[in-house]
């Protein structure tokens, strides 16, 4: 039977009936180790009791009131995020793309409020991914996603990360901001060196630009810090977050300094569902766990352990694995074999990994992953890699 769903995804022939921590279980009872976590979404794994408790408790009280009324859970989550970051104010929405739309609007309005509405252009970096709305597609700059959808949204310029001459050349009197992922996720787990992030901050300060960090994939503990930019010592003016912040419940956030958000007065932005009581309850519950003493250190430790074991695996299969990239539990394996074939082989070994650009597979396990699960994942990667060694042997 043909599916009634718009065929915009190539879906694996697999459906899951339930999840438990790092495991997904099919209706037939087959267990898969989930090292994708819904593309870095299920930060605390599946069916985490604290999140289930918070959501069901809230579901029994109130789901939705609109943003025309106070939402105490949102006030609390906003305050906690402000206290834990560079930011002074938070806007809640429902997805990463929406968080980036808010970031773009805040940056443009900042200049308009300062008497410079002509400063609206945003510089982004090759390999970026910022979402699938028309503006965030233009920001990401990937032709294959933009084509066929009419004129590209105006106001985005792109340069290669690390090409500071090109960056200085593209910055002009209309430039409002730079926008960057501290580690490019979809682009292939490409870590932007801390020195480069510091230089971007200096360039922003020198030209009166705002620095926007897209931490939709890197944020909320993924790299072993609450937000990945913290490793570099650089603070943005505006930051988007989503994915892990809701632990699997749709939630996005745009954080900013009060100064950067100076133009955002009543009526300048909005969303029907953003910041609804259900999302706020889950967001607070995620923070309860992620901000608990020692949690982020354990993430960093698990990341190091996984990276070490992957290094040994690369030595065992140099014809399959070329390089290991990433920070914390956002790791990428650069492959010498096609990444989609490898992801399918890993799936056959009951391990879920996520392909990305630059022939990478991403390992994005729940942040709660334990050593036994790390070992099980590495064994399954080993089994998947052996399949390719066989193919290579036969071909030679
Ligand atoms: C860095 C980054 N920004 C933005 C997005 C878009 O998020 P969403 O799919 O929730 O709109 C993604 C999604 O993969 C992402 O990785």
From TrEMBL:
InterPro entries per the UniProt record, alphabetical: AcOrn/SuccOrn_fam, Aminotrans_3, Aminotrans_3_PPA_site, Class-III_PLP-dep_AT, PyrdxlP-dep_Trfase, PyrdxlP-dep_Trfase_major, PyrdxlP-dep_Trfase_small
Family of the protein in this entry: Belongs to the class-III pyridoxal-phosphate-dependent aminotransferase family. ArgD subfamily.
Residues that hold N(2)-acetyl-L-ornithine according to the record: 132, 271
Cofactor binding note from Swiss-Prot or TrEMBL: Binds 1 pyridoxal phosphate per subunit.
EC main group: transferase
Organism: Methylobacterium longum
EC number: 2.6.1.11
Gene3D superfamilies cross-referenced by the UniProt entry: Aspartate Aminotransferase, domain 1 (3.90.1150.10), Type I PLP-dependent aspartate aminotransferase-like (Major domain) (3.40.640.10)
Residue positions where N6-(pyridoxal phosphate)lysine is found in the record: 243
Name the UniProt record assigns to this protein: Acetylornithine aminotransferase
Subunit text: Homodimer.
């Amino acid at each position: 039977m043909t599916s009634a769903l718009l065929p915009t995804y190539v879906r694996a022939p697999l459906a899951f009936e339930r999840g438990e921590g790092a495991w997904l279980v099919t209706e037939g009872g087959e267990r898969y180790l989930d090292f994708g976590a819904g593309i870095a979404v299920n930060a605390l794994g599946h069916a985490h009791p604290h999140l289930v408790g918070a959501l069901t408790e809230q579901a029994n009280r109130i789901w939705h009131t609109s943003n025309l009324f106070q939402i105490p859970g949102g006030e609390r989550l906003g305050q906690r995020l402000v206290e834990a970051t560079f930011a002074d104010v938070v806007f809640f929405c429902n997805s990463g793309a929406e968080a980036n739309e808010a970031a773009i609007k805040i940056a443009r309005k900042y200049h308009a409020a300062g008497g410079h509405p002509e400063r609206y252009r945003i510089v982004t970096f090759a390999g970026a991914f910022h979402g699938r709305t028309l503006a965030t597609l233009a920001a990401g700059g990937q032709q294959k996603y933009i084509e066929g959808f009419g004129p590209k949204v105006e106001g985005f310029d792109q340069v290669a990360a690390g090409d500071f001459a090109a960056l200085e050349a593209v910055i002009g009197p209309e430039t409002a901001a730079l926008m960057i992922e501290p580690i490019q996720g979809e682009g292939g787990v490409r870590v932007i060196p801390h020195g480069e992030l510091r230089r971007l901050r200096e360039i922003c300060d020198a030209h009166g630009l705002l620095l926007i960090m897209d931490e939709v994939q890197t944020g909320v503990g993924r790299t072993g810090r609450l937000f990945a930019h913290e490793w570099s010592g650089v603070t943005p003016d505006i930051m988007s977050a989503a994915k892990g912040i809701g632990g699997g419940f749709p939630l996005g956030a745009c954080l900013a300094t009060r100064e950067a958000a100076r133009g955002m007065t009543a009526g300048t932005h909005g969303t029907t569902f953003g910041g609804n009581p259900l999302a706020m309850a889950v967001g607070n519950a995620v923070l309860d766990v992620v901000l608990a003493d020692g949690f982020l250190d354990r993430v960093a430790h698990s990341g190091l352990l996984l990276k070490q074991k992957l290094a040994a695996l690369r030595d065992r299969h140099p014809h399959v694995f070329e390089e290991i990239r990433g920070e914390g539990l956002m790791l990428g394996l650069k492959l010498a074999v096609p990444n989609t074939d490898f992801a399918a082989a890993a799936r056959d070994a009951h391990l879920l990994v996520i392909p990305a650009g630059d022939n990478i597979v991403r390992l994005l396990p729940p942040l709660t992953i334990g050593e036994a699960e790390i070992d099980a994942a590495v064994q399954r990667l080993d089994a998947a890699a052996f399949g390719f060694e066989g193919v290579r042997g036969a071909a030679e």
